[in-house]
Amino acid sequence: MQLKLTKFQKKRIKHFKTxxxxxxxxxxxxLLQSGYSISQxxxxxxxxxxxxxxxxxxxxxxxxxxxxxxxxxKKDVSNQIVLQLKLADQHGxxxxxxxxIGQNLAKIQQQQNKVMQVMRxxxxxxxxxxTMLVGLKYFLYPILNQWQDTSVIATKESHxxxxxxxxxxxxxxxxxxAFWHKKNPRQKLILLSYMPIIGIIVKTIVTYQVTQQLATxxxxxxxxxxxxxxxxxxxxKNNRMTINLANHARQHFQKGYTIESYILKQPYFNRSLxxxxxxxxxxxVLADYLSYYAKTQFQLLMQQTDRLIGTLQPxxxxxxxxxxxxxxxxxxxPMYNAIGGLYQ
Length: 344
Prior knowledge:
Layout: H1 2-14, H2 18-33, H3 38-48, H4 53-64, H5 69-72, H6 79-91, H7 94-146, H8 156-181, H9 185-194, H10 198-218, H11 224-232, H12 240-254, H13 259-265, H14 283-342
Helix pairs in contact: 2-3, 2-7, 3-4, 6-7, 7-10, 7-14, 9-10, 10-14, 11-12
């Protein structure tokens, strides 16, 4: 039984959920701020969260062996968090970094919930519409066909047209999928940023996340080139998008581009970000400005998402309403024709 429990805990911690990471980093940072050592803090967390006990015991054991915290957590959290913890160990601001990581993860989780809220309505409504179509095809239409000697509702020609349209849609989707997979992460981001409606939200998401990461890393005393070098050394398999963007930026800076001009040329950034790099601030001062700017971008993101939800709801309700009217017409007209044929 103990062996099975251990295997389950190892499997669970391998997929360390964002909500769990928020709790872990926020509570660990608060305990360190209260004066507890990191080992004492982890013991307290193990008592408060029984499902983390086995994992936290391993973390404490590795810490006692002299292994750095960022190396211990490397398999459980993202490369950005590992980098922040590594720099915090080097510059002695681990407590502040842990609290900041927890706050950032909480905002990212809120952002993801908003995106899921946007997607939920069209998925549910399209699901209802698809269920109605299936019900009509396999339950109602066969009954109506029995009322008529000639199949008015579902002739062979109508089936051929239906299959042809479905085939064209599937072929078109396959072409889009193949085209999408050929693009690297940065090219995909550019395509998303040019898309109507969602392009504005994509720009704000990227601007917020990049700004927040830069603010955290600059506060550790690094410069922009050093940050790009550190990010480029990460595991590309697990963090391909970030590394691809960092390599692209580093190559352009080596060619003589300024940070301001580079940002203005990238379609996935909000242009207002460039102004913070034209004033020549010291890294830690710039970090404070970027931290404030990241908060404004997060607020903007929430507003844009709310507006999108407010736009999509009536739009999709209207689409489904029109579809329902069309379905009723497709049911009633053959019924009227069949009833009319009985009186002829």
